[in-house]
C-alpha cells in the first residue's frame, strides 16, 4: 500500500495522465475523476478521462463533465500514468479500456471498496473512507493543495452520493466535517446539488418503479426481499439501467428485511444484481461468491444467468447467511 507522499511525487515526475473508473459510473466515480482532472490540469499536465459508459444526465451539471470521453477515444492513448478510481478491480473499467489503455510508467489505483484488489503499481485503498472523493479530498489536504469551487462541488457530489445523502453507515464525523469544508470552499447550495441528482427524474422512472414494486417478493420469515426489472419493463417505460438506481434501497427499508436484492435483466439476458444489507449480513462477501464485490452493506455482481435463476442462486446463499447470524 502506498501513501499520499508517493502519489504527490509520482504526479510531479510525469506529464501525461489518463483517468478512468468503473462501468455505470456514479456520483463518486465521476466527481472523483473531475476533481483529479482539474488538479492535474492546473498543474499543467496533459490529462484525459475515458469511461466505458456515458455520464448520466443527472451528473451533467458537474463542471467539466464534457471532458469525459468514451472508450473508443482511448484507442491511441498511451499516458505515462493511468489513474483508476473507485473501481474495485481492473475488469470493472470495461474490456476495451482494460485492453487498450496501457500506461508507459504506472497504474494508480485509488479506492474505498472493502473488496478492492491492489492491481495498481500504486495502491491507495481506504475501506474506512465513505467514498473515493473523501480519499481525494484528504490527498489534496495532505499536499496543501487549494480546492477551488468547482472541485469542491465535484467532491461534495461524490460524498453525497456514496453516503446516500449522509445517511448510510459509512457517514462518519470526519465525512461530515469534510462535507462542511467543501460547502465552505464551494459556491453551491447543498439543496441544489440534491435537486440536480435526485429530483430531475423522468416520469418513466416512476412508472418503472411502480412496475418493479409489483414484482416484490419476501422470504417466508420476511428477512429477504427481492425485486425484478426486465428488459421489457425498461422498454415499456422508455427507461435504462441507470433509472433502476435506488430501487433496492426502497425495499431494504421494509421492517424486518435484512437483505434486499434487485435483479435487473441485461440486454444479453444475463443479470445485474444489487444487494443491500441492514447490517448483520455481509453482502460484499455474498457478492464475492458471484465474482462481484462492494461494501459490507451495499454490493453488486453480474450473474451469467437470467434473472429468475440468478435470484434463486442468490437466495440459497443469502438464506444460509441469515441462518448463520441467528
Ligand atoms: P449498486 O448496487 O449501486 O450498483 O452497487 C453497490 C456497490 O457494489 C457499489 O459500491 C459498486 O461499486 C459495487 N458493485 C456493484 N456491482 C458490482 C460488480 O459487478 N462487481 C463489483 N466488484 N462491485 C460491484
Ligand atoms: Mn465509491
Can you describe this structure?
The protein is α/β, with parallel strands linked by helices. The chain has two domains: 4-198, inorganic pyrophosphatase (n-terminal core) (Alpha-Beta Complex), CATH 3.90.1640.10; 203-325, Diaminopimelate Epimerase, Chain A, domain 1 (Roll). The protein has helices at 4-13, 27-42, 95-100, 132-142, 149-162, 173-185, 190-198, 203-213, 231-237, 247-252, 283-288, 307-325, and strands spanning 16-21, 46-51, 68-70, 81-85, 106-111, 122-125, 217-218, 224-229, 259-265, 271-277, 293-294, 298-303. A six-stranded parallel sheet has the order 3-2-1-4-5-6, covered by helices on one side. A six-stranded mixed sheet has the order 7-8-9-10-12-11, with helices on both faces. Helix 2 (27-42) runs antiparallel to helix 5, helix 5 runs antiparallel to helix 6 (173-185) and helix 8 runs antiparallel to helix 9. The protein starts with a helix and ends with a helix. The model has no long low-confidence stretch (mean pLDDT 97). Guanosine-5'-monophosphate (5GP) binds next to strand 11 and strand 12.
- Return the CATH topology of the largest domain: inorganic pyrophosphatase (n-terminal core)
What's the architecture of the largest domain in CATH terms? Alpha-Beta Complex
- The CATH class assignment of the largest domain is Alpha Beta
What is the CA-based Rg, rounded? 20 Å
Q: Find the count of extended strands (DSSP E, 2+ residues).
A: 12
Q: In which range does the helix fraction lie?
A: 25-40%
The CATH superfamily of the largest domain bears the name inorganic pyrophosphatase (n-terminal core)
Shape: globular
Distance between the termini: 36 Å
| Unreliable stretches | none
Order of helices and strands: HEHEEEHEEHHHHHEEHHEEHEEH
Count of spatially separate domains:
2
Amino acid at each position: 500500500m502506498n501513501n499520499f507522499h508517493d502519489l504527490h511525487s509520482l504526479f510531479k515526475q510525469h506529464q501525461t495522465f489518463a483517468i478512468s473508473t468503473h462501468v455505470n459510473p456514479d456520483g463518486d466515480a465521476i466527481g472523483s475523476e473531475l476533481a483529479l482532472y482539474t488538479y492535474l490540469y492546473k498543474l499543467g499536465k496533459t490529462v484525459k478521462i475515458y469511461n466505458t459508459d456515458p455520464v448520466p444526465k443527472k451528473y451533467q451539471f458537474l463542471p467539466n463533465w464534457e471532458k469525459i470521453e468514451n472508450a473508443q477515444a482511448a484507442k491511441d492513448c498511451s499516458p505515462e500514468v493511468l489513474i483508476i478510481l473507485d473501481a474495485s478491480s481492473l475488469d470493472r473499467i470495461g474490456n476495451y479500456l482494460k485492453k487498450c489503455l496501457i500506461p508507459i510508467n504506472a497504474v494508480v489505483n485509488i479506492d474505498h471498496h472493502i473488496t478492492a484488489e491492489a492491481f495498481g503499481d500504486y495502491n491507495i485503498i481506504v475501506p474506512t473512507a465513505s467514498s473515493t472523493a473523501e480519499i481525494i479530498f484528504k490527498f489534496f489536504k495532505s499536499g496543501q493543495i487549494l480546492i477551488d469551487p468547482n472541485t469542491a462541488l465535484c467532491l461534495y457530489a461524490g460524498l453525497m452520493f456514496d453516503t446516500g445523502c449522509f445517511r448510510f453507515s459509512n457517514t462518519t464525523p470526519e465525512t461530515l466535517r469534510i462535507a462542511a469544508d467543501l460547502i465552505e470552499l464551494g459556491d453551491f447550495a447543498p439543496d441544489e446539488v440534491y435537486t440536480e441528482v435526485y429530483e430531475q427524474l423522468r416520469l418513466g422512472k416512476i412508472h418503472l418503479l411502480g412496475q418493479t414494486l409489483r414484482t416484490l417478493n419476501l422470504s417466508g420469515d420476511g428477512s429477504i426481499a427481492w425485486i425484478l426489472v426486465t428488459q421489457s419493463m425498461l422498454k415499456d417505460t422508455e427507461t435504462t439501467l441507470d433509472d433502476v438506481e435506488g430501487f433496492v434501497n426502497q425495499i431494504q427499508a421494509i421492517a424486518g428485511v435484512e437483505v434486499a436484492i434487485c435483479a435487473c435483466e441485461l440486454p444479453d439476458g444475463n443479470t445485474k444484481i444489487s444487494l443491500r444489507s441492514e447490517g448483520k449480513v455481509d453482502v460484499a462477501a455474498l457478492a464475492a461468491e458471484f465474482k462481484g464485490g462492494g461494501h459490507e452493506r451495499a454490493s453488486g455482481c453480474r450473474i451469467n444467468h437470467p434473472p429468475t435463476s440468478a435470484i434463486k442462486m442468490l437466495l440459497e446463499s443469502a438464506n444460509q447467511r441469515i441462518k448463520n447470524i441467528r
